[in-house]
Amino acid sequence: MVTTTIGKGAVARPDDRSSILKRLYLLALAVFCPMVYPSLPFNTAIVDYINVAFGGLFLLYGVLGRRKPQIRLLFPFTLLVLASLIAMFNSPVLKINILTLVQDIYLFGFFLLLYNLLDSERDMRLLLRIWLLVASLEGGLALANMYGSFWIVPTADPTRANGTFANSNMLASYLGVAFFLNFQRYFDSSLLSRMLSGFLIFGGMFATKSMSAMLGFLLGMMLIMVGYWWRGSGQQRLKLGVGVFMLAAVITVSMPMIMQTENLFERAPKSSEGRLKIWQAGYESFLAHPMGIGAGAFKYIGHGPYNAEGGRSELHSDYMGALVERGILGLLAHLIFLGTIISMALYCLKQAQTEREFFWGIGVGAVVLYILIDSVTHEVMHDRHVWVIFAIIAAEEKLIKRSRARAQA
After folding, report:
1. Can you tell me the distance from the alpha carbon of 329 to that of 407, in angstroms, rounded to the nearest whole number?
2. How does pLDDT run across 43-69, given as a tens digit for each residue?
């Protein structure tokens, strides 16, 4: 595979014969990751088959001794698997437990594959450029859903955009994490292009009418503004102040339209009431089974309330899902996993030596904050794009450590 240096530029080794294959994979990943509808057998998507094919080539490459795989986040994931196995004892839906655990293992393998492939600034630059381009197109499609009645994927709720995703909440999660990638440091992009990308992605996020996505976005932007104010010079603080004032003026002018947007705020009471009922049922299930009922089992064994489609509801929270389905040990593993991701983001921020590096570091922090907020009311840990973000954050930590080590040597 590709091993390059970072710093003033990415320099490929003379025997870098697989770089074209890697570029094709990163291109396919960015293009096909949002295309999850219609689902293929066992709830798979096109990107899963691409991952398996390229992952097999990567493993073969390693078996031949050409590259030693790098492992990250193994301890918290192993703890999560152990908790899942313990929770499977006496489970009446063992098949569901096994399939969910297999999905977990696949996603972790996907993370490790991408973590190993993102081995230079060039790799990061390529993936992030394509990712933002596709996310901008996805945001534009979401706006077309709402304001042009242009639908590619059928939807049960025509008042909320879903783009190429199976539902609006998944699209909102994808666009939310993509928005903060606009602060990346890996290529010189004009302010106009970043603003256009940000506008399309945010517009698409608004079209999903996801309250948790909007909350995560606002808190992420607050983190960026506070960090920029704290680190910036007097002139930069003045520019930030002007920008905040202009943004506040735009929001004030558009507030009447926002308040009258169909199915936005009026969904909040019903949505919160429904989740409270689900979480109450989950709490009662935990009291009865403190070691868990098995991964993915809640909606199948009679604890969850019925949803509008007549089936039982999921827990709608990664934290509650870990606690109820995998028990106390599962929640501990989940928190350790997220804590490790947070520590990576903090490392990237602390190691920033230039304004570009700091801006990207604070953007990474905003992505993590967005995921933490969104996972309170949705189960996003099985979304493929979330694991892509985890791999990007871990790869950024790896590149910074390698760069610092070379600088000291």
Report:
1. 41
2. 899 999 999 999 998 887 765 666 778
In DSSP notation, 168-185 reads: HHHHHHHHHHHHGGGG-S
Q: What integer pLDDT is reported at residue 64 of this predicted model?
A: 62
Locate 396 and state its tokens.
């950024």
Is 6 among the domain residues? no
Residues 6+ apart with CB under 8 A from 369: 216, 219, 220, 223
* Distance, CA of 53 to CA of 300 (rounded, Å): 32
Q: State the Cα–Cα distance between residues 103 and 325, nearest whole angstrom.
A: 15
Nearest Cα to 207, choosing from 251, 164, 171, 155? 171
Q: State pLDDT tens for residues 189-213.
A: 787 888 899 999 999 999 999 989 9
* Domain enclosing residue 255, as ranges: 19-408
d(CA 377, CA 13): 46
Which 8-state DSSP code applies to residue 374? H
* Band of residue 260 on the pLDDT scale cut at 50, 70, 90: low
As for how many domains the chain has, the answer is 1
Chain centroid to Cα 280, Å, comes to 27
Within a domain: residue 12? no
> What pTM, to 2 d.p., does this model score?
0.90
- Residue 69 tokens, joined: 């795989």
328, two tokens = 């106390």
- The answer to whether the beta carbons of residues 55 and 109 sit under 8 Å apart is yes
Q: How far is C-alpha 254 from the geometric centre of its chain's CA atoms?
A: 29
- Size of the chain in residues: 409
Mean pLDDT of all residues in 282-297:
92
Radius of gyration of the chain (CA): 22
Tokens of 164: 């190429």
Per-position DSSP letters for 199-236, written without gaps between them: HHHHHHHHHHT-HHHHHHHHHHHHHHHHHHHHHS-HHH
Backbone φ, ψ for residue 289 (5° rounding): -135, 75
**What long-range pairs does 61-65 form, CB within 8 A, spacing at least 24?**
61/1, 61/18
CA distance 344 to 49: 29
Instruction: Centre a 10 Å sphere on the Cβ of residue 297 and count the other Cβ atoms it contains.
Output: 26
Burial class, 406, CB count within 10 angstroms (exposed 0-12 / middle 13-18 / buried 19+): exposed
> How far apart, in Å, are the Cα atoms of 388 and each of 105, 175, 354, 385?
15, 13, 25, 5
In a domain, 272, yes or no: yes
Q: Does a structural domain hold residue 8? A: no
